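User: Structure please.
Assistant: Input sequence and predicted structure:
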Amino acid sequence: MAVGARLTPDVLELDPAAATDRIVAELRTIVGKTLRRRGAVLGISGGIDSSVTCALCARAFGPERVLGVLAPETDSETETLRLSHVVVSTFGVPYVVENITPILAAARCYERRDETVRELVPAFTSGWKLKVVLPDVVGNDLYRVLFLVVESPDGRQERHRLTAEQSLAIVAATNFKQRTRKMIEYYHADRLNYAVAGTPNRLEYDQGFFVKNGDGAADVKPIAHLYKTQVYRLAEYLGVPEEIRVRPPTTDTYSLPQSQEEFFFSLPYQKLDLCLYAHNHGLRAEAVADAVELSVADVERVFRDIEQKRRTTRSLHMSSRLVEPVAEIDLSDA
């Protein structure tokens, strides 16, 4: 872009047909030739990212060589399972439903989480609901910490600031969910000689919005290079049903409804996409402020938040470290 030019949403435009052809060709090469697998397994959440990944895999391998894994648990929204069925039906993909609640209960996922919650809300029982949220990055220079929001059976809500230890404990217990789902996906991949396809978009991959050895684990990640705005464009082209395309992105992790924005990103994806693009291309805050309808100071806050998340989550991208190299195992061409 020229010096002094202003960013517009047009910078994220893409040719969906060309993008689809490129991804499908790469999937066939990676899965068939590099990994020597017969097809793909992926988790289906009823959200935009897993829907697009499902459609791409169906095009790459044929629907009959794709398996969708629907893995609800006690905190899942009813709508999630319904929309997941819509996805597999739309693209003609075989699927299995694996209710992971018994596994999570056996691992004391809910019990461990609730023990920490009761440190702040002693009355918290199975009749209550909860979620955790972050303060908005806009207009806020304070260090942002997680807050616990609970709702009693009569609908009364309370909000409590979490200590660092309490935040870690709740998130660690909740991470059982993503890791259990991935364990189930790899079971089916092993028995079918398939690869596991991950579903992160660029925002999630760049900012570390995933659980290591959970939803971050996969053999191939077909849309990790695409901004979320571009994923929505691809969804329209691929025929993802409108009711999925208009549904706000959610975490579907806690018993209270929770958007990705309030849990992690702090901005709507349309604005964060443009801020991330600008930051990735070395543009100043002034170049993007008008496009995202934020002040220059707030865009600078978003830029700092992007870098902070990259630093904090860097280890999530790392493979196991070796003390010394093992020369006989060379993955440089993998």
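The first strand starts at residue 40 and ends at 43.
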